[in-house]
Amino acid sequence: KKKKKKKKKKKKKKKKKKKKKKKKKKKKKKKKKKKKRKKKKKK
């Protein structure tokens, strides 16, 4: 009796997709201007 040889199946490798990172925009803070109070002069 002759033995039959089994054929091995080759597995296909899947390619992984690279994800792009999004850059976050920094918000600029506005500086508030202080108003100077005028002093009243006493006569």
Describe this structure in words.
By secondary structure, the chain is largely without helices or strands. It has a domain of 27 residues. The protein has no helices and no strands. The mean pLDDT is 74. Keywords: Coiled coil.
Keywords:
43 residues, 0% helix, 0% strand, rod-shaped, coiled coil
Provide a compact summary of the structure.
The chain has no helix or strand. The protein is low in regular secondary structure. Residues 1-43 are annotated as: Disordered.
Shape: rod-shaped
Amino-to-carboxy terminus distance: 130 Å
Main pleated sheet: none
Count helical runs: 0
Broad structural category: little secondary structure
**Poorly predicted runs:** none
Mean pLDDT: 74
The portion of residues forming beta strands comes to under 5%
Query: Total number of β-strand segments?
Result: 0
Q: Radius of gyration, Cα only, in angstroms?
A: 39 Å
Helical fraction equals under 10%
Coiled coil: 1-43
Keywords: Coiled coil
Region (Disordered): 1-43
Please outline the helices and strands:
Blueprint: no helix or strand
